[in-house]
Amino acid sequence: MIGVVAGVVVAIAAVVVLVVLPMTRTPDPGALLAEQGVTDATLARGAGTGRARVVVSPQDRPATGVTVTVSCTGRDVARVYLDGTWEGGVPCGGDPRTVAGGDVTVGDAVDLGVEHVVEVEAAPGAVIAVTVATAGG
Predict the structure, then answer these.
(1) How far is it, in rounded angstroms, from Cα 118 to Cα 82?
(2) For 122, which of 3, 20, 28, 76 could close a Cys bridge (C-beta 3.0–4.6 Å)?
(3) DSSP assignment of 84-107, as one string?
């Protein structure tokens, strides 16, 4: 009888370690960023926890629209700023393990010949990944 009980306890522990624990881990910011991918339109990328700051270096491209793609976890809305000006927000995943997000397109053409700073803020524990790209790219 003790052997059966011990076997059941070991089986339950194995399920917890192999199935439940991986589902409760918060995503890694770098892994979240890698999921966004890179294209020819990509200008800059970055990731962080609670906040991500991405510097867009001067580019040899004409002024154009810019899209900020955000992936984030947590119960907050990620707020997107370009050079200190609020541009919009996207909903995060709802809990520390669920990823959601979306795109914020800057309304005016952005002069890519000068440096710009994109900042994304969410809840203190939120994992955030940011890709800045030319709009439509």
Answers:
(1) 5
(2) 76
(3) TEEEEEEE--SSTT--EEEEEE-S
Phi-psi region of 88 (alpha: psi -120 to 50; beta: other; left: phi over 0): left
- Write out pLDDT tens, residues 107-128: 899 999 999 999 999 999 999 9
> How many C-beta atoms lie closer than 10 Å to residue 69's C-beta?
20
Contact present, 53 and 44 (Cβ < 8 Å): no
70-107 pLDDT tens trace: 999 999 999 999 999 999 999 999 999 999 999 999 98
Summarize the chain as % helix, strand, coil (round to 5).
20, 40, 35
- For 109, phi and psi rounded to 5 degrees? -65, 140
Contact assessment for residue 58 and residue 132, using Cβ atoms and an 8 Å cutoff: no
Within 8 A by CB and 6+ apart from 121, the residues are 50, 51, 78, 79, 81
